[in-house]
TrEMBL record:
One of its GO terms (molecular function) is catalytic activity. This is DUF2848 domain-containing protein.
Length: 222
């Protein structure tokens, strides 16, 4: 398992991921979440038994990749932030949860295992941005077209998830939590050959980016 390496204010921080968790249905307005669950149900995606959700994912799926191999043409990313617990700190970075949409209709947890969580190579200390967290923006482009654009005020906070992790004895070095996402623009084709996510602090104009190319694998010989 390869460690993740982050540039934190010019210092390299290395983290060996031991626990990877994907939050789901994690909007701060749970009324909006309920409406989203209903919309997905109409598309055949099974409704969760509770919200927000927390999906354990194989730790090796946390990566800093430039290329994401996929098995078919119906996979796509999601703009998210990632919480990374180190030996002595908590970091925040950009992330893109690449999801198999064909598999999602059979089980969200299964679909999370079918693609990686791509993280940025730069990170901020959570303590340095937590005081103005809701001002941070999250933006995604699919194939060069803007598909998601919002702020962290739309999502449950890192502090909420840290409390949740502590209650489950998971707030320990090597744990990475991916936040859940914000709404997508329905008119943009999410099944694109490139994905990019920007996490921006408007107070400093500093941006953390993760981006990658989606590469179709050869058809199986079977």
């Amino acid at each position: 398992m390869f460690p993740l390496r982050f540039d934190v204010a010019g210092r390299t921080v290395e983290v060996a991921v031991t626990t990877l968790l994907n939050a789901g249905y994690a909007g701060r307005s749970q009324e909006d979440v309920a409406a989203h669950v209903a919309e997905l149900a109409e598309l055949g995606v099974p409704a969760p038994t509770r919200t927000p959700c927390l999906y354990p994912v194989a730790p090796y799926l946390a990566m800093q990749a430039d290329v994401v191999p996929v098995q078919h043409g119906r996979t796509s990313g999601e703009a998210e932030w990632a919480l990374v617990i180190t030996d002595d700190d908590v970091l925040l970075t950009a992330a893109c949860d690449h999801t198999d949409r064909e598999l999602e209709v059979h089980g969200v947890a299964w679909s999370k295992q079918a693609g990686p969580d791509v993280l940025g190579r730069k990170a901020w200390r959570l303590a340095d941005v937590e005081g103005h967290l809701d001002e941070l923006t999250l933006t995604a482009w699919a194939g060069g077209e803007k598909i998601q654009d919002g702020t962290l005020a739309e999502l449950l906070t890192p502090r909420y998830w840290l409390d949740e992790l502590r209650s489950r004895d998971l707030a320990r070095p090597g744990t990475v939590l991916i936040s859940g996402t914000i709404p997508m623009a329905s008119e943009v084709d999410q099944f694109a050959d490139t994905w990019r996510v920007d996490l921006t602090d408007p107070r400093t104009a500093d941006t953390i980016t993760c981006s990658y190319t989606v590469q179709r694998m050869p058809d199986p010989v079977a």
